[in-house]
Design a protein that fits this description.
Shape: globular
Helix content: 25-40%
Largest sheet: 8 strands, mixed
Structural class: alpha+beta
Mean pLDDT: 75
CATH class of the domain at 70-92 and 209-257: Alpha Beta
Number of helices: 7
Strand order of the largest sheet: 9-8-7-16-11-12-13-15
Strand content: 15-25%
Number of strands: 16
Low-confidence stretches: 1-14, 37-112, 114-138
Order of helices and strands: HEEEHHHEHHEEEEEEEEEEEHE
């Protein structure tokens, strides 16, 4: 066809038709390919999840996760004894114990820090948790076989006690030493042996008749356990090697001194300047002390109503003297008595021990008062005689 000729309309329509068909054919082929690929993928997935798939092996029982430690309220010093019990929970709530303001104007002499707890009648207090104070048992837990009151019997029992101590059986050594002391009361060698073995026996996981086993339960914390057994938090921690008393585990086994069934008592002699600690009426340990000049230390029967670590010294008419100040005479620990202004405390003047040197309080070496602070609960009876 020449360029100047009229266009062949029918020929043009046929060419367009062929192009459209070719396009439709290509589109159809592409769509079919996509559908085929999708079907193959679906089939592959179906085969993986079907009967030929690898079975999933499940454990026969429930998976046990380790118990998380129980969070406990932060405690410092003897405040841990007084944490409020509150509601039992897996995580015990923090126990806030507000400080007690100083109360100047107490009697002259070695005036105590302010005492935030009192013990009335036969009720003791572990800083907010009221604990009934049980009467001392009629007989001590350790009842040594009676021996003839002869030097030979006492010497033999003491030799047996020393052998048992050397073998590491402190509980049996204590029983034998008490038998020797009953045969020869006041024997210095026997008392010295008991001085050496009683505290290590008490402040450890070694068994003794006055201890009980206790498994920590959900909702427990050391302040609550201490109140339950009328025994200090510090003793529980030391005896059970608890480095952080704010964290304990449910199910953890403790060995506790039972302060409800067994009672410590303190006897101070002003003339001898000594302090004898007894357990259920039996000798436990003797300490050297200083008492008041001119007989200022009061005579009578009192109770420990407060326990303070690193005490400030409150003197009438003066600003409280903080712990660590050279003018603070109270040493490292203070055990307040239920007579205002008087108590048992440490000293920075060890040379004064064994004499009448204080203004009325009972002084001990810092190591000794720390020992008593650790093992004596509030409510412990203190008898002072001439």
């Amino acid at each position: 066809m020449a360029y100047d000729s009229t266009p062949d309309i029918y020929l043009m329509k046929r060419q367009k038709t062929r192009a459209g068909c070719l396009t439709a054919l290509i589109v159809t082929a592409v769509a079919a390919a996509i559908v085929g690929i999708g079907f193959a993928i679906h089939a592959g997935c179906s085969r993986e999840a079907g009967d030929d798939a690898e079975p999933v092996v499940l454990p026969e029982g429930a998976v046990e996760a380790p118990l998380a430690p129980v969070e406990l309220p932060a405690t410092t010093g003897e405040v841990a004894e007084g944490a409020e019990a509150g509601e039992e929970a897996a995580v015990a709530p923090a126990a806030g114990v507000p400080g007690t303001p100083a109360t100047p104007g107490t009697p002259e002499g070695e005036v105590s820090p302010a005492s935030g707890t009192t013990v009335a009648g036969e009720t003791g207090s572990q800083g907010g948790v009221q604990v009934p104070v049980a009467a001392p048992p009629a007989t001590p837990a350790v009842q040594p076989e009676p021996l003839p009151a002869t030097p030979e019997a006492a010497a033999e029992a003491l030799a047996t006690a020393k052998r048992l101590r050397d073998e590491g059986d402190l509980a049996a050594a204590r029983t034998s030493a008490l038998a020797a002391l009953a045969a020869a009361p006041g024997d210095p060698a026997t008392e010295q042996l008991l001085n050496e073995i009683d505290i290590p026996l008490l402040a450890s996981r070694r068994p003794m008749p006055e201890k009980v086993e206790y498994a920590i339960r959900n909702g427990d914390y050391l302040g609550k356990i201490a109140a339950k057994f009328n025994t200090p938090v510090a003793l529980i921690s030391i005896a059970n090697d608890i480095s952080d008393p704010t964290r304990i585990r449910v199910g953890q086994e403790l060995l506790l001194f039972d302060g409800n069934a067994h009672r410590f008592a303190v006897a101070v002699s002003k003339s001898r300047n000594d302090l004898v600690l007894t357990l259920d009426g039996a000798f436990f340990k003797r300490y050297r002390v200083a008492t008041g000049r001119g007989g200022k230390t009061p005579v009578g029967t009192f109770k420990i109503i407060d326990k303070i670590e690193h005490p400030a010294w409150h003197v009438a008419g003066r600003t409280p003297i903080p712990y660590g100040d050279p003018d603070n005479l109270l040493g490292t620990h203070w055990l307040a008595l239920d007579i205002p202004g008087y108590g048992l405390h440490g000293t920075w003047d060890p040379a004064s021990i064994g004499s009448q040197a204080s203004d009325g309080c009972v002084r001990l070496l810092n190591d000794d008062i720390q020992e008593l602070y650790t093992i004596l609960p509030k409510g412990t009876v203190v008898t002072i005689t001439d």
